[in-house]
Amino acid sequence: MNILLAAATEAEIAPSIQQIATSWQQVDPRVFQRQGKRLTVCITGVGMMATAYHLAKACSATRFDMALQAGIGGAFHRQINLGDLVFVRSEQLGDLGAEDGEAYLDIFELGLLQHNELPFTGGRLAAPTADFHKLIDLPPVDGLTVNMVSGNEASIIRLAERYQCGVESMEGAAFHYVCLQEGIPFAQVRAISNYIERRNRANWKIGDAITNLNSWLVSFVGRL
Asked: Quick check: 196 and 156 in contact, CB under 8 A?
């Protein structure tokens, strides 16, 4: 089995990489194998462009049987506690479109894409059910991917009402898009480091989110 583990930054999954390096055999830089399984770590960089490029490059070199994106993200809803983990079952694009005065027209309203044009389903990039999803016992949420993290109250209200999403990131949609196009079973898991509000780093729990993410990730990889 060929497994792809993707993250925007190495810091988000560094404890897991260290743990994998002690229990798996390293055969190439960021490539490990154990008991017939081969795991490739892909650090994509931040944002959709970098993510799409590095994932496509990895997929051109190896045919993966499954892919997992792990990282931190922000939550729209206070029902999700800081540090909690979620399974992102679908993604939408939050800022691909055009402004029309005070209105915003997304890529579908502009007629440049159809809501059910592959790989979209109803305007979403949804993760098809895969066998390994039963190992992911986390609350499912819908994600929103943006180029500019939300920190303006009016923008936050508009995005929350329009997209009805639980979490926000800068890479999720690119990961879903590449995996859907390549036909790779996939899952995205996020640990919530902050609420989506006016930027206030004092309220963030990045350390807790990374600790919880890697605790779960080491356990998940061990069960594959």
From this structure: yes
Location of structure tokens 């931040």: 46
- Spatial CA neighbour of 70 closest among 7, 22, 121: 7
Query: What pLDDT score does 199 carry?
Result: 85
Q: What is the pTM of this model?
A: 0.95
Find the mean pLDDT for residues 29-46. Answer: 96
5-11 average pLDDT score: 98
Query: For residue 84, which phi and psi values (nearest 5 degrees)?
Result: -70, 155
- 146/197: higher pLDDT: 146
Q: How far is 90 from 105, CA to CA, in rounded Å?
A: 21
Whether residue 5 contacts residue 58, with contact meaning beta carbons closer than 8 Å, is answered with no
Domain map (residue ranges) of the chain: 2-223
Burial of residue 7 (CB within 10 Å: 0-12, 13-18, 19+) is buried
Average pLDDT score, the chain: 94
Interval 36-46 mean pLDDT: 97
55 and 42 Cβ atoms separated by less than 8 Å: yes
Please, which residues bridge with residue 42 across strands?
6
At 189, give phi and psi (nearest 5°). Answer: -120, 130
Q: d(Cα 38, Cα 23) in Å, to the nearest integer?
A: 13
Give the class (CATH, top level) of 2-223. alpha beta
